[in-house]
Structures are given as C-alpha cells and as structure tokens.
Specification:
Blueprint: E1 27-40, E2 50-63, E3 75-81, H1 85-99, H2 103-110, H3 114-125, E4 139-148, E5 160-168
Antiparallel strand pairs: 1-2, 1-4, 2-3, 4-5
C-alpha cells in the first residue's frame, strides 16, 4: 500500500449505473416536499421518456400494519412517467394537495374557460420551475397502498405497484385538511 496512490474511483468504470430511486412503501407518511422536477428518463429501456419526480423527506410514518415506518429524515421520491392523461391527473392531484387547495374549487375554476385553465396550468408548472419550486417546503400526507396490476398482452404476469394518494395538511399542525362537500 505504501508508495501507491489511493484511487477512490477505481472500479467505477465497470459499475452498473443506477437509474432507480427510493420510493414510499405501503403505509401513511407525513412528508415534506424538498423539490419537484421534470426530467427525461435515463433508463435505457425508457430513454427520453418525460418524468415528474418529487424529492421528499419523511417526517412521520407508519407502515401498512400500523407499526412505525420510516425514521424521520428518511429521503424518498415520488415518480410519475408522464406518458398518459392519467399521469397528468396524478401530478395535478399531488400539486393541489401540496399547495393546500380544494380540488373541487380548482375544477370549478378550470370549468370557467381557457383563461382560467391556463392559470391553473401556470400554478402546476410553478411546482417544477427551478426558480419558484412552489411545492418546496410544503407538507402533505401520503397514503400508499400496494395494488395488484392487471394482466394484459404485454405483461401476462404483472406484479404489484404502490399507489400513493396525497392529502393536504395544515402546515403548522400536520393534521389533514378536510374541505366541505
């Protein structure tokens, strides 16, 4: 070892690149948004596919069995491949919950016409704008359930995915905000 230079990157050339993240598992998680971003996939199978990613910090967590989940401070991500209208709806629901808006009021505003829809689009875009990061620092509740995927021609034996539903919370108390029906 003496006389040799230590190279911390030795063997890096043959390491397999990672293209995944650490995601929320089943349970209930009080989270804080660190940042939201739009990017294109680096996964060779999905290269260039548009993605929405929210980087999160867990504040409090219980797993699906109601036991303690992730320790406070755990970093996690929420990811959506932006390839379908359903994906856009998922992102919209996340941003609306993070910003503490009533989804029914948002829909009523959009229904007023194109100008109002453009206002909502601008609000949603502010979540991924590197200068604004409208969702950064906001807290919300993520309820994650394991869901069995349905078989289809492409995937005759599909697996399970974790479906997250987001709820707005009071930014001081962390309690879920309920809106009038």
């Amino acid at each position: 070892m003496f006389g040799q230079t230590f190279n911390p990157f030795q063997g890096l050339a043959t390491a397999k690149p990672s293209v995944g993240g650490d995601y929320l598992g089943p349970g209930q998680h009080l989270i804080e948004v660190k940042l939201c971003k739009y990017q294109q996939s680096q996964d060779p199978k999905k290269l260039g596919q548009p993605q929405f990613i929210a980087e999160l910090t867990v504040l409090k967590s219980t797993d699906a069995a109601g036991k303690e989940g992730y320790p406070a401070g755990t970093k996690r991500s929420w990811f959506v491949a932006m390839t379908t209208e359903k994906a856009k709806a998922e992102i919209k629901a996340f941003v609306i919950a993070a910003l503490g808006h009533d989804p029914k009021q948002i829909e009523a505003h959009v229904a007023l016409g194109a100008a109002q829809a453009a206002e909502i689009d601008a609000l949603l875009m502010s979540s991924v704008d590197p200068q604004r990061q409208a969702c950064a620092g906001r807290r919300l509740l993520a309820v994650v359930e394991a869901k069995q995927m349905k078989p289809n021609a492409k995937y005759p034996n599909p697996g399970v995915f974790n479906k997250a539903t987001f709820y707005p919370v009071d930014q001081n108390t962390g309690s879920v905000i309920t809106f009038p029906a």
